[in-house]
Design brief:
The structure holds 2 protein chains of 2 kinds. Chain A is mostly helical. In chain A, about 70% of the residues lie in helices and about 0% in strands. In chain A, helix 2 runs antiparallel to helix 3 and helix 2 packs antiparallel against helix 4. Chain B has a domain of about 230 residues. The longest helix of chain B has about 50 residues. The chains are: A mainly alpha, B mainly alpha.
C-alpha cells in the first residue's frame, strides 16, 4: 500500500509537474507558454530521478533538456509567425500521432512492468538493485567492448557528422 | 533529561517536544536552506559597496562616502530607494512570465550556494554530483534572460536577450570543459571531496590553464567586463532587462553581482583549495575565513580587471571563445587525461594528502600545462604578427595610391 510520507508527497508533486506540464505543452495556444510547461514537465522527470536515487541522471536531465529550452524559445521566436495565438491546435496527422503515442506508451509499460512482475503477474519480486543499475555501471557499459561501445561510438560519430553538416549548410558560399 | 535544547540537536529537541520526526527533519532542513540562502542575500549589499569603491579608486574618485561609515550603508539606502520606485509593467507584457524572470534570475544564483563547502563540516548539501549540479543550475540561468527579453513585449529587449543567449551558451562550453580537468585530477564530482583532495597541493598548480580558462569563461558567463556586452552601459544602456524597473530590476542587478561573486567563490573552491589553510583541521570554522579571504583576492582581481580593461566587440567575443578558448580547453582536457594516465602508470598518484606526496603529480601536470601554454602563446603571437603585417600592407598600399596621409589602421 502507498504510505503517506515525505517521499510519496514528493512523488505526487513531481507527477503533477510532469503530467500537468505535458498537458500544458499540447493544449496552450502560446508557444512560449508551451516551452515553459515543457520545463515544468522535464523538471518533474528530474525529480523522479532524484527519488530513484539517480542524482546524476537528474542533473543531466536538467542540464541537457531544461538548459536547452532557451534555444527552443529562440527557435520559436525566429521560425514561427505568430507565437502567441496559434490558430490550430491539431493538424492532419493528429490521429496517426495519437496511435503512435499510445503504442509507444503501451510498449514502455510492458518494458517496465515485465522485468519487475514477470509474466502472468506472478510478481517475481526481484530486488530493485537487480533491475536498476548505477551510474558507474552505465559509464562502464558505454566503453566496454562486450557491451555498448560500438553503438556509443556510432552515435557520437553521427552527432559529429550532423554538427559538421549544420556548419556546411549555414556557412556563406562566397568564402 | 540531560538533553538540552539547542541548535545542535534541533531535530532531537523537536522530536522530544512531541513533533513527528519526519516533520522535525523537514523543518530543520528548511531552516538550513534559509540559512544558506541568506548568506548571499546579505553579502550582495557589501558586494555592491566594494565594487563601487574599487571602481572609484581606479578612476581616482572617492566613491560612496556619505551614508554610514565609509559609505557602507549606501547600498541599503539604494535598496530602500529601489523598493519605493514605481513598479512598471509594459503594456502587452506577458504578466506572469514577466514577473517570473527576476525570481528565476535570483534563484538560479542562490541555488549554487547549496553545494559550496564553507568549512570541512559545513556545506548545504554534499551531493556526489556537486560540479554537475553547478553546471545544471547555471544552465537554468539562460532561461531567465530569454523569458525576460520576450515577455517585456519590446523588440530591443528581445534582441538584447538573443545577444546575451549567444554569449552565455558559447562560454558555457569552455566553462564546462575547464571544470572537467579538476574533476579528472580529483577523480570525483563532489565539491567537498574536490576541496579535500587539494590538501597537498591546490589544483591551480596542477592545472593553471584550466583555472585561467575557468576564470575567463566565468567573467563572460556573469557578464562582467571586458565581456559586459549584455549591458554595455556606455552605448546601449541595457539589454534584456530594459523594461524592468524598481525592485524587479534590483533583483536582476543583485543576481548579477551575486553571480560574479559566486563565480569567484567557485574558482577558489575548485582550483585554490577552498577552505584549506593552516590549522583548519583543528578548528574547522577557520575554513570559512580562509575561503572568504581567498575569494576576496580573486574578486578584487576581477573588479580591478573590470575597471581597467576595455570592452570587447561582439565578433571579438565570439572569436575569442570559438577560435581560442574552446580549442585550448579541448586540448587541455586531452593533455591532462594523457598525463594522468602516465602518472598512474608510473605509480606516482598521490597516496596521502600532504605536499610531498602530491609533488610528482604536480610537477608533471605543471610541465604539461606550461608546454601547452607555450604552444598557445606561440600561436597567438603568430596570428597577431600576421594581422599586423596585413594591416601595415594595406596602409602602405593606400599611402602609395593617393599620396595623402592616412590615419593608422588597427593596432
Amino acid at each position: 500500500m502507498l504510505e503517506f510520507n515525505a517521499q510519496s508527497v514528493a512523488f505526487i508533486v513531481f507527477a503533477l509537474f510532469s503530467l500537468g506540464g505535458a498537458l500544458g505543452v499540447v493544449t496552450t495556444r502560446n508557444l512560449i507558454h508551451a516551452t515553459l510547461y515543457l520545463i515544468l514537465s522535464l523538471f518533474g522527470a528530474a525529480g523522479f530521478f532524484v527519488l530513484l536515487s539517480a542524482p546524476f541522471l537528474a542533473a543531466v536531465q536538467i542540464l541537457v533538456y531544461i538548459g536547452a529550452i532557451a534555444i527552443l524559445i529562440v527557435f520559436a521566436v525566429m521560425l514561427t509567425r505568430s507565437m502567441t495565438r496559434l490558430r490550430e491546435l491539431y493538424n492532419r496527422q493528429w490521429l496517426l500521432s495519437g496511435v503512435v503515442g499510445v503504442a509507444l506508451f503501451l510498449l514502455l509499460m510492458i518494458g517496465v512492468i515485465l522485468p519487475v512482475w514477470g509474466i502472468n503477474g506472478s510478481h517475481v519480486g526481484k530486488p530493485v538493485s537487480d533491475v536498476v543499475t548505477t551510474t558507474v555501471d552505465l559509464g562502464i557499459a558505454l566503453v566496454d567492448q562486450n557491451q555498448y561501445v560500438l553503438p556509443f561510438e556510432v552515435a557520437s560519430l553521427l552527432l559529429t557528422a550532423a554538427m559538421i553538416g549544420a556548419i556546411v549548410i549555414a556557412r556563406d558560399d562566397r568564402e | 533529561m540531560e538533553n538540552v535544547c539547542s541548535i545542535n540537536n534541533l531535530v532531537a529537541c523537536l522530536v522530544q517536544s512531541g513533533m513527528n520526526p519526519d516533520l522535525a527533519n523537514l523543518l530543520t532542513a528548511l531552516g538550513g536552506v534559509v540559512l544558506v540562502a541568506t548568506v548571499p542575500l546579505v553579502t550582495v549589499i557589501f558586494l555592491i559597496w566594494i565594487e563601487r569603491k574599487v571602481a572609484a579608486r581606479v578612476q581616482d574618485r572617492l566613491g560612496p562616502n556619505r551614508v554610514g561609515p565609509f559609505g557602507l550603508l549606501q547600498s541599503v539606502a539604494d535598496a530602500v530607494k529601489m523598493i519605493t520606485k514605481e513598479d512598471i509593467t509594459p503594456q502587452g507584457a506577458d504578466k506572469f512570465i514577466y514577473n517570473l524572470a527576476p525570481i528565476i534570475a535570483f534563484a538560479s544564483v542562490v541555488l549554487i550556494w547549496a553545494v559550496i563547502p564553507f568549512t570541512p563540516l559545513h556545506i548545504g548539501a554534499d551531493l556526489s554530483i556537486g560540479i554537475l549540479y553547478f553546471v545544471a543550475v547555471a544552465s537554468i540561468g539562460t532561461i531567465k534572460i530569454m523569458i525576460a527579453g520576450w515577455s517585456s513585449n519590446n523588440k530591443y529587449a528581445l534582441l538584447g536577450a538573443f545577444r546575451t543567449i549567444a554569449q552565455l551558451l558559447s562560454y558555457e562550453v569552455p566553462l564546462v570543459l575547464s571544470l572537467l580537468v579538476p574533476v579528472m585530477i580529483g577523480g570525483t564530482l563532489g565539491m567537498q571531496e574536490i576541496v579535500r583532495q587539494q590538501g597537498g597541493m591546490w589544483f591551480f598548480f596542477m592545472a593553471p590553464v584550466a583555472a585561467i580558462m575557468f576564470f575567463i569563461a566565468n567573467l563572460a558567463e556573469t557578464g562582467r567586463a571586458p565581456f559586459d556586452l549584455l549591458e554595455a552601459e556606455s552605448e546601449i544602456i541595457a539589454g534584456y532587462n530594459i523594461e524592468y524597473s524598481g525592485f524587479k530590476w534590483g533583483m536582476f542587478m543583485a543576481g548579477e553581482f551575486m553571480h560574479a561573486f559566486t563565480a569567484c567563490l567557485l574558482t577558489v573552491v575548485v582550483f585554490f583549495g577552498g577552505w584549506w589553510g593552516p590549522g583548519v583541521e583543528q578548528i574547522p570554522v577557520l575554513g570559512f575565513i580562509y575561503l572568504g579571504l581567498k575569494t576576496a583576492v580573486i574578486y578584487l582581481f576581477a573588479l580591478v580587471l573590470r575597471s581597467t580593461v576595455p570592452r570587447v566587440r561582439i565578433d571579438q567575443l565570439m572569436t575569442l571563445n570559438w577560435k581560442w578558448l574552446v580549442p585550448i580547453s579541448v586540448a587541455n582536457v586531452i593533455v591532462t587525461a594523457f598525463l594522468l594516465q602516465v602518472i598512474k602508470a608510473l605509480g606516482l598518484t598521490p597516496q596521502s594528502g600532504d605536499l610531498i606526496a602530491a609533488l610528482p603529480q604536480t610537477i608533471i601536470l605543471l610541465v604539461g600545462n606550461v608546454l601547452l601554454g607555450v604552444v598557445v602563446f606561440g600561436f597567438i603571437g603568430r596570428v597577431g604578427r600576421a594581422q599586423r603585417a596585413a594591416d601595415q600592407a594595406v596602409q602602405i598600399h593606400t599611402d602609395h595610391d593617393d599620396h595623402s596621409p592616412v590615419p593608422a589602421v588597427g593596432d
